[in-house]
Design a protein that fits this description.
30% of the residues lie in helices and 20% in strands. By secondary structure, it is α/β, with parallel strands linked by helices. Mean pLDDT is 92; it is low at 1-18.
Length: 503
């Protein structure tokens, strides 16, 4: 089978792509089953934000969602939106921040390859984006939660979520909490979290603007005119094919590729075989459909890694690797600890914690009690513990001796753990086996402009095609802070919706 051209640069080779994502010619479509000015694929955070803005701009909007209802990964998440620069919530909780300060942090925290232009753009618009969320009805309680943890245990609205107050970031930018979480009572992590109270007001706002939704619809391929413009998509619902027309533009917003085993093996193999901190609908379909038109990609090997233990425990102990050496400050953002552990420490970690610290941690208030881990080994001395774990002789003893001597002086010259968490390790002492305790999700995806236009590998936008959310290469490259996905997904979802409405 040879090449098929749809005009411009949108030329692909049929042999090079799977048949289910191969683009269809508009000339082959006899009847459109559904149509709208703007068609959005996926009703998670990016799709909802795009729908609100496209409808606000006067467009007739249809959202197609492969499941039986709205929400996506966002509705199951903790709900953090990473915002700053001096939001009303930050000010109400007594914190000063600026776009410049936020930008300085993100340029480092988002890792190698982070897009400085995109970060600057996001930071400059962060306060306005918070105000927009509030106008859409998203509730925030002006109360700060200052304890370590994955998310606040109650309905507090603000928290540190990226290690902003940990070394070395606290030497680069003035620490400010930027994890904005919608107010919600009776939360249960992973089941009923703040993400629901982020999504519901946005979906309600979209509905009030006339946005329509078609559920149980699986998008499969894009439909393209002879001049290269995307004018719709092919889909299936209940086994029946659907041709869906987009008079002005298609917005792809159906999530990452964390649940596509073949793509994970191809692009991010260190995550292969691990639990995906995502939902199974994140199968890379939006990415593959756009790839079939020659779309460019970025950061496909980048991942966020969850470290599956309660931070109330890690902060009270010391983390050592297979050589019995400390390798990361234990008060660091858990996602960064996970990245360092998986990629630089052979996925091997042991938390060394004495009985008093373990009891304190187990009693501490937490939104994630299921992540509180019992000791794997308990011994009277560090030397005995070292032998039980199987660490090199003398290695753990030397590490604990050095840590204890410095902690007694209120110092951590090696890794700069904050003084409030420095306490010598006593006896009896235990270790929690944290080998293979990392899960994750993918961060890479489609290259887009700041207005959400999907870029062809030649550098030009593919006409009529937009994308936002975790199917794109957003703010995060090889770094992360909790709330970045929901933050840039909603922020650039809005941009993509407005741009698509203009056609």
């Amino acid at each position: 089978m040879g090449q098929r051209s749809f005009g411009g640069d949108a030329t692909v080779t049929a042999d090079a792509v799977d048949s289910d994502v191969y683009p269809r010619s508009a000339d082959d479509v006899d009847t459109w089953d559904l149509e709208a000015d703007v068609v959005i694929v996926g009703y998670g955070i990016a799709g909802a934000a795009a729908a609100v803005e496209a409808a606000s701009a006067g467009a007739d909007v249809l959202v197609v969602e492969r499941t039986g209802g709205w929400g996506g990964a966002a509705a199951m998440a903790g709900g953090f939106i990473y915002l700053g620069g001096g939001t009303a919530l930050q000010k109400a909780c007594g914190f000063d921040d600026s776009a410049h300060n936020m930008e300085a942090f993100l340029n480092v925290a988002m890792g190698p390859g982070a897009d400085e232009r995109r970060i600057a753009d996001y930071c400059a618009g962060s306060v306005e984006h918070f105000d927009w969320l509030v106008q859409c009805g998203v509730p925030f309680k002006p109360e700060f939660w200052g304890e370590p943890g994955w998310e606040p245990p109650g309905d507090q609205g603000l928290m540190f979520t990226g290690g902003e107050n940990a070394f070395p970031f606290n030497t680069i930018a003035q620490p400010a909490p930027r994890g904005h979480v919608p107010q919600m009572a009776d939360k249960r992590a992973g089941e009923r979290s703040g993400g629901y109270m982020l999504m519901k007001p946005l979906v309600d706002t979209a509905a009030s603007l006339g946005v329509r939704a078609a559920y149980d619809v699986r998008a499969e391929s894009l439909i393209v005119q002879a001049d290269g413009r995307v004018v719709g998509l092919m889909a299936h619902r209940y086994g029946q094919p659907l041709a869906i027309r987009a008079r002005r533009g298609v917005v792809l917003a159906s999530g990452s590729f964390a649940y596509n085993d073949a793509m994970v093996m191809q692009y991010a193999p260190r995550l292969a075989g691990r639990p995906a901190a995502s939902i199974e609908q994140h199968d890379g379909q939006s990415i593959r459909m756009a790839q079939a038109l020659g779309a460019d990609l970025a950061h496909m090997d980048a991942t966020e890694v969850a470290f599956l233990i309660d931070p109330q425990q890690t902060v009270r102990g010391i983390l050592v690797n297979e050589r019995g050496q400390r390798y990361v400050a234990e008060d660091m953002y858990s996602g960064r600890i996970g990245q360092v552990t998986l990629y630089h420490q052979n996925d091997t970690a042991y938390l060394i914690i004495d009985s008093d610290a373990q009891e304190e941690a187990m009693a501490a208030t937490s939104a994630t009690p299921l992540l509180k881990r019992p000791a794997t080994w308990v011994c009277e001395t560090v030397a005995e513990l070292e032998g039980e774990i199987g660490l090199p002789a003398g290695s753990l003893q030397a590490t604990v001796d050095a840590y204890n001597a410095a902690a007694a002086r209120g110092e951590d010259p090696l890794l700069h753990k904050k003084r409030e968490w420095l306490k010598p390790v006593g006896a009896p002492v235990g270790a929690i086996d944290l080998r293979a305790s990392c899960a994750g999700f993918t961060l890479g995806g489609l290259q887009t402009t700041l207005d959400g236009e999907v870029l062809h590998v030649a550098g030009k936008p593919i006409p009529g095609l937009y994308a936002a959310g975790r199917c794109t290469a957003g703010l995060a490259a090889w770094g992360y802070a909790s709330g970045v996905s929901l933050g840039d997904g909603s922020f650039y979802g809005r941009r993509a919706g407005r741009a698509a409405a203009k056609g």
